[in-house]
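Before surveying the methods themselves, it helps to consider a single example record, giving the amino acid sequence and backbone structure tokens:
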Amino acid sequence: MEQTKEQFIEEARQIRNKLFRWTYESAAVDPRQWLNYARSLKSAADLLSPTFQKELDAPYSPPKKNNFKTSIGQIYLMMVGFSVENYLKGIYITEDSNVIKDNRLIKLNRHGLLQLMSELKFKLTKKEIDLVERLEEFVLWAGRYPIPTKFERLIPKKHREGTKFAFIVYSLSTDIEVASKLLLKLDKKLSKVMNL
């Protein structure tokens, strides 16, 4: 029996979908993919770091009327946050590759960096905890938008290591150094669990 044009098109569509599903599932559980993206995002952050350092070192000057001061600091921190996230997800799948269900990414469909680090028993210094807590906000909204989707995310939070309250989206003069060391630790950890 001869195949109709519609049957042929449907069969071709099913073959195409199988190929893309296989590609999707293979990439999700391949730590090399996560490592590559983490390193690419780190490279992007590295390109921004000299300009961000100049911003951090510059004396404060109030913005002129109707002219907001531009900054790449939040973009740098977002790139660092995305890199951290990719490293962590790469490490995660080396321990549990069961991350696809019903053609969707599960378990890793989140941005809680501190939670992922806790689950992976990744040790952090106090400065790294402070940075990662802020990176979550830059990944979620502060690196992309002027405001979060919920106003509660703007409310100052109590620091984990004390009683002082502070806005969560700020930068420190030590952020570049702390971020560089943290990304190096994550790269070494993922490379080690991948036996590279």
Remarks:
- The radius of gyration is 21 Å.
